[in-house]
Design goal:
This protein is mainly alpha-helical. It is about 95% helix and about 0% strand. It has a domain of about 25 residues. About 0% of the residues are buried.
């Protein structure tokens, strides 16, 4: 009976540890996904700024040529 009880306790501890680890991994994955989202937003914003500035540059070049 004691052996069975000990095995049950060990299994319970293992499951608890496993659940904690799983929760940590889920949190880490959510964090990574969040960082990925922020990074892609930054890339999109940066490319939009670059596109806008190149348009302004082209307009300025045309303006200066015609002056």
């Amino acid at each position: 009976m004691k052996l069975w009880l000990r095995r049950t306790l060990v299994l319970q501890q293992w499951y608890a540890a496993n659940a904690k680890t799983e929760a940590k991994i889920k949190t880490l994955l959510q964090f990574m996904t969040g960082i990925e989202g922020i990074t892609s937003n930054l890339k999109e914003g940066f490319s939009a700024i670059m596109l806008r500035s190149s348009c302004h540059y082209n307009i300025m070049q045309r303006f200066l040529k015609h002056r």
